[in-house]
């Protein structure tokens, strides 16, 4: 028996390793596909939520904010802003959003600025509905605190 590393051994590690990680990848994909319907409460995606998501994309909110950890780290995480600023109540949150979006930019020296997007009341309500839906997805309690 040879004690050197042969081409055959390298080939077996290559194929064996590839198959091993492909199986893990397939297993995790299957797990995700099975778990998502339990966590994303897709039955609550109303037309308002859809419109809100479209506005979220069109105005590139994610260019500054994160949503469930994805996005830019310039401005606060917004997947829990519904709890943070609305206390989990839709009417309070819509009122907060309406005041917040219209008050921008705050022009407070030394504080980061958010632009004014000149949205209508309806559009702000739709964004609130989208952020509420996001807040209520099951993310294993992430982010860990209300300030996100
Ligand atoms: C150019 C960067 C930028 C963009 C784009 C942006 N924001 Fe902001 N946003 C900020 C900053 C900075 C703050 C924090 C401002 C402060 O605390 O004075 C903020 C704060 C907020 C808050 C309050 C968060 C809290 O915890 O009180 C909400 C809600 C919000 N943004 C929603 C949005 C939405 C919706 C959009 C897209 C329509 C958007 N933002 C796009 C920069 C941005």
TrEMBL record:
<dbReference type="Pfam" id="PF00034">
    <property type="entry name" value="Cytochrom_C"/>
</dbReference>
<keyword id="KW-0812">Transmembrane</keyword>
<dbReference type="InterPro" id="IPR009056">
    <property type="entry name" value="Cyt_c-like_dom"/>
</dbReference>
<feature type="transmembrane region" description="Helical">
    <location>
        <begin position="12"/>
        <end position="32"/>
    </location>
</feature>
<keyword id="KW-0479">Metal-binding</keyword>
<feature type="domain" description="Cytochrome c">
    <location>
        <begin position="47"/>
        <end position="135"/>
    </location>
</feature>
<keyword id="KW-0408">Iron</keyword>
<dbReference type="InterPro" id="IPR036909">
    <property type="entry name" value="Cyt_c-like_dom_sf"/>
</dbReference>
<keyword id="KW-0349">Heme</keyword>
<protein>
    <submittedName>
        <fullName>Nitric oxide reductase subunit C</fullName>
    </submittedName>
</protein>
<keyword id="KW-1133">Transmembrane helix</keyword>
<keyword id="KW-0472">Membrane</keyword>
